[in-house]
Amino acid sequence: MKNYSRHTGRLLSTAKDKVGVDLTCIHNDKTVVLTLRNEGKMNCMTEFMAQSFKGIVQNLTESHPQARCLVITGHGKSFAAGADLAWLQERSITDPSKNIQIMREYYGFFTPLLEIPIPTIAAINGPAIGAGFCVSMFCDLRITADDAKLGANFVKVGISPGMGGSFTLPQKLTNQVCNDITLTGRTFSGKEAEKMGVVLKSVSSRSMVLEESLQLAEQIVNTTSPNAMRETVKLLRAPYLQIMDSQLQLEAEAQSRCFASDDFKIALASVKNKTVPVFD
Questions:
Q1: Are β-strands 69-74 and 120-124 bridged in parallel, bridged antiparallel, or unpaired?
Q2: To which H or E segment does residue 108 belong?
Q3: Lowest mean pLDDT: which of 168-172, 173-177, 224-228, 274-278?
Q4: Strands 19-26, 7-13: parallel, antiparallel or unpaired by DSSP?
Q5: Which three-class secondary structure string do you get for 188-238?
């Protein structure tokens, strides 16, 4: 049994070998909490975690027909620190045409978030960087902490945006905020994220993020029509779904070209050596 303050839940599935996704049901099983878990690695998103995530989200309305809201958070002090470094290193030595297929499949592990017919809330309890940040942008609502670090740092690590960032950010943020985030690749605090409209709310402590998110979920499940909510989320997400396939293909092609570049090799070396990359 997990206890989220006054919210109690049933832990139904657990990550394998400390990597994967935990699933907990709250509010008489009407709220489902998915916890991204990669202990010791800031919940970086391995292929196994991604596969687990897709399996749960894609089948959630069948396996848990009573679910009315989905909350996604991270284990420990992080939300998700992007793709796994070892996996990214493999991309630098893989044929570009193969990388296109690999990236399309990788994005597809998380895109069911845009198709599940219930509201989704990202409880960003710590760093949400790169692909991890983009997964939070798939969600309908986002809550974070003042000192959490967020960012789409792709250009700083030698690659173009992926994981749907090229269409969720322009659709959900103002032009200048979107361009600031993507063209500088800078990280920013949860407090700044609230001011920019990246998140709905930023709270003073990371320990409050999940509690605040569950209160919002409780409001949704207790005061709204399930049928009307299903139709509403479909309408709100329609602009993304209409362009999703074509835009993800463009992202995969662009990233595959970046993976083959010297810039990406420089960025990988700097990450490994914990230095600032210097691009020619």
A1: parallel
A2: helix 96-108
A3: 274-278
A4: antiparallel
A5: EEHHHHHHHCCCCEEECCHHHHHHHHHHHHHHHHHHCCHHHHHHHHHHHHH
**H/E segment holding residue 122:** strand 120-124
Q: Is the pTM value of this prediction over 0.70?
A: yes
Joined tokens for residue 244: 């999703």
3-state SS, residue 131: helix
Rounded CA-CA distance 111/280 in Å is 35
- What is the enclosing helix (H) or strand (E) of 252? helix 226-259
- Amino acid letter, 85: L
- DSSP assigned state of 44: -
In this structure, the strands spanning 120-124 and 141-145 are: parallel
Each residue's pLDDT tens digit, 181-204: 999 999 999 999 999 999 999 999
Contacts of 225 (CB under 8 A, 6+ apart): none
